[in-house]
């Protein structure tokens, strides 16, 4: 939270190819009067029809469905230039049946040879791997969506899109694909289960974008034109997917994953009996509606979660590693993007870990939790979460031999509530409330390392125009804590302008 000393940071960056030698003063004075018109990209459209025969996902587009399907083609370059057609052209065909969306993609290669890929691991990095990707916005809001992408070696990458352009690949789901390589092209065939997607019933227009990264020829291209200063994945530039008949109604989707863990230890030197230890738990995901999801967990086990990248921190500021636990991922932008990166109101990685009075980080078991998140309708999104952790012991003083003996780490109950209203085309306003409540707090216990509670309430406003030329963010958060009653307000604002030749930012 911000203190009594308020600092103002103003960053103005100006770049113009013909005015590089002009003094900065001219650029600053011209800001209030400077305007550059930028035409909206011509909206591209592609239709999707029901398959007329059985599609086998084998990387060979020999079904009659593909011969009659509409084609998304004539891709535009977005890098290294953004004013010409792509030299490595791509064609996309789309179909569906009662269970799957199908994509048949032909990636032409003008420079035969080996493909360049960064890794054969799932969820590879976009920039250094040849790939083709599908960016789907089923709710037509140009803000949130899904990405499914493949490398020429059939290595998959999927993720969630938030704020029109930010991609999180920590979200994982099951879909099917095959790739066939030829001398002058590679062909992709994909089947995405409808139950993997969240979409509104009877909505016959979706936003969609196709992006191709041809590393070998140093070219990034897309189905619709995207100016070079924007990310190719920006949903603000997506085209239209027109359903010739409505997609199948969303079906009830319930997933339950129970687990059982067991181990036994025995000290042969002391001759003690074996001590068995067991643990059971489960995770459940329930689709309340086609766009509202309920996650439940009891005694969760996160041993299968991908480990964090090891980083040596040489400054006094803590690192914020991304959340990788599946329970927290879907619609995570509702909670995690309140405030600015350096002053987030909520950071889910703190649930399940705590600091004792000596500063040691202690893992805290999570007992149970529930999380409801998603869209109520086209204008409103909500997020409700409640988690309960167990109590543990921690060390009292630095150097204590028994790290798990001494100080009390009382059980904590975490509650988060968010409501967000979409405004205009790609803007929104939201309110957030966070509460951490100690469930076994004893005010007379001097070894307790946490306060009785901490609460944060605030409002966030995010603005973006249709072309993402203008963006703005404003937030005000207030913290309530029985120990620290001063400096309880955090606030900030940001305005940015981007055009082909100018980039201007103001931050406070």
From TrEMBL:
The keyword Transmembrane helix applies. It holds the Pfam family DUF5916. The keyword Chloroplast does not apply. GO terms for biological process: carbohydrate catabolic process. Keywords: Membrane, Transmembrane, Transmembrane helix. One of its GO terms (molecular function) is hydrolase activity, hydrolyzing O-glycosyl compounds. Residues 254-480 form the DUF5916 domain. The chain crosses the membrane at residues 12-35. Residues 57-220 form the Carbohydrate-binding domain. This is Uncharacterized protein. It comes from hydrothermal vent metagenome.
């Amino acid at each position: 939270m911000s203190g009594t000393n308020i600092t103002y940071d103003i960053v103005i960056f100006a770049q113009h190819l013909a005015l590089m030698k002009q003094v900065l003063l001219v650029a600053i004075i011209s800001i209030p009067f400077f305007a550059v018109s930028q035409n909206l990209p011509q909206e591209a459209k592609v239709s999707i029809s029901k398959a007329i025969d059985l599609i086998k996902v084998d990387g060979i587009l020999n079904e009659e469905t593909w011969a009659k399907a509409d084609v998304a083609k004539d891709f535009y370059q977005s890098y290294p230039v953004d004013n010409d057609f792509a030299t490595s052209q791509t064609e996309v065909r789309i179909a569906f049946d009662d269970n799957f969306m199908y994509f048949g993609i032909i990636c032409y290669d003008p420079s035969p040879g080996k493909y360049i890929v960064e890794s054969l691991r799932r969820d590879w990095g976009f920039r250094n791997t040849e790939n083709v990707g599908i960016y789907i916005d089923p709710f037509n809001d140009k803000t949130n969506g899904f990405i499914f992408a493949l490398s020429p070696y059939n290595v998959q990458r999927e993720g969630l899109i938030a704020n029109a352009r930010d991609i999180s690949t920590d979200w994982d789901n099951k879909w099917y694909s095959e790739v066939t390589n030829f001398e002058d092209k590679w062909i992709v065939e994909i089947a995405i289960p409808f139950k993997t997607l969240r979409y509104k019933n009877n909505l016959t227009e979706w936003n969609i974008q196709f992006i191709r990264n041809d590393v070998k020829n140093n070219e990034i291209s897309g189905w619709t034109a995207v100016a070079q200063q924007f990310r190719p994945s920006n949903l603000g530039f997506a085209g239209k997917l027109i359903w010739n008949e409505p997609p199948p109604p969303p079906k009830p989707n319930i997933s339950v994953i129970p687990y059982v863990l067991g181990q036994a230890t025995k000290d042969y030197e002391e001759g003690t009996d074996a001590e068995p230890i067991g643990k059971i738990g489960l995770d459940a995901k329930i689709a309340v509606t086609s766009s509202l999801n309920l996650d439940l967990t009891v005694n969760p086990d996160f041993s299968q979660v991908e480990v964090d990248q090891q980083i040596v921190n040489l400054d006094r500021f803590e690192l914020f590693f991304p959340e990788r636990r599946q329970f927290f991922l879907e619609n995570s932008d509702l909670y995690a993007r309140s405030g600015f990166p350096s002053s987030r109101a909520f950071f889910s990685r703190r649930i399940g870990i705590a600091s004792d009075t000596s500063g040691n980080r202690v893992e805290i078991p999570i007992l149970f939790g529930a999380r409801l998140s998603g869209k109520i309708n086209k204008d409103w999104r909500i997020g409700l979460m409640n988690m309960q952790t167990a109590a543990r012991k921690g060390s009292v003083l630095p150097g204590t031999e028994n790290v798990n003996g001494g100080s009390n780490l009382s059980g904590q109950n975490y509650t988060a509530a968010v409501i967000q209203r979409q405004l205009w085309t790609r803007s929104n306003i939201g309110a957030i409330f966070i509460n951490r409540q100690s469930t076994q707090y004893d005010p007379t216990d001097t070894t307790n390392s946490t306060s009785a509670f901490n609460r944060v309430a605030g409002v966030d406003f995010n603005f973006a125009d249709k072309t993402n030329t203008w963006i703005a963010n404003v937030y005000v958060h207030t913290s309530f804590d029985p120990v620290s009653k001063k400096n309880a307000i955090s606030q900030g604002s940001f305005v940015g302008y981007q055009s082909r030749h100018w980039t201007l930012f103001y931050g406070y």
